[in-house]
Amino acid sequence: MMRGTGIWAAVLAAYVLADTLLAMVLLRGVPSPPGAMPAALLANAILVAAAVVIAPRLTGRGPRRALVLFGLLFVPRVNNFVEPLIFPLDLQERLIPTLLLKVALLSAVVAAALDAWVSPGPAARSCWPAQRGIAGWLARALSCDLAYVAVYVTAGMIVWPYVRPFYAHRVMPAMGAILSMQVLRGFVFVALLAWLAHELRGARRVTILLGGLALAVFAASDLIVPNSFMPDFARWAHLCEVGTSNFLFGAFVTWMLTAQARPAASGALAEQASEA
Prior knowledge:
The longest helix has about 35 residues, at about 135-165. The chain contains 9 helices and 2 strands. It has one domain. The chain has helices at about 5-25, 35-55, 65-80, 95-115, 135-165, 175-200, 205-220, 230-255, 265-275, and strands at about 125, 260-265. A two-stranded antiparallel ribbon has the order 1-2. The relative contact order is 0.15.
């Protein structure tokens, strides 16, 4: 069984090969900005590295773990594609379905490769609460969603002076539309992080850090790559904004949804533990 850097290199090679083939088939005739290829390799290397760190800490092996990995790789990027629907970017809307298909197929390749090549870690401790009422879950979910809106607005205000020249001549959406969209996006991220926290095994502090890492890398790594709809100065500013704010938000949500680690149980053992 491969270990460490060997797994990372093998998964990265599979990712790059699949990315190249899919770009040739799905994005034929779509030009790439200068410097996109080396930047894409760096972004893919970081994305795969984060997935390699998370995979052995997920419970079990097989379709369940592969589905979690697919969700982590796919959902944040889909959630990001919602923003061009309201913000005045130069992304051609006709390309969005094609790009989403490409991301879905790449995510499936990475998830399948990781599940096949990464051995599951020991069934250690779970930080998912054994008991918590519906009211407690709803309160935490709503608090996390409001926290996302607050973090989004605060990060946007901090980065605004650096991106103002890009947006100055564009018609911006109403603040109500922006906030409504972020409420929906926040719930998507909270649900994804709850799923991750439920499946992770290990100390609570590790689970919290992995929640922040997952959201920061999987939602922001695409901004490393030059694109045709955003100048470099705005892209780098948004990369710092999204990467930092998503890490803080992901760590906060994972902290809110978890409890002190307890021995993990599965199947019949879980049922016996709940009845005891």
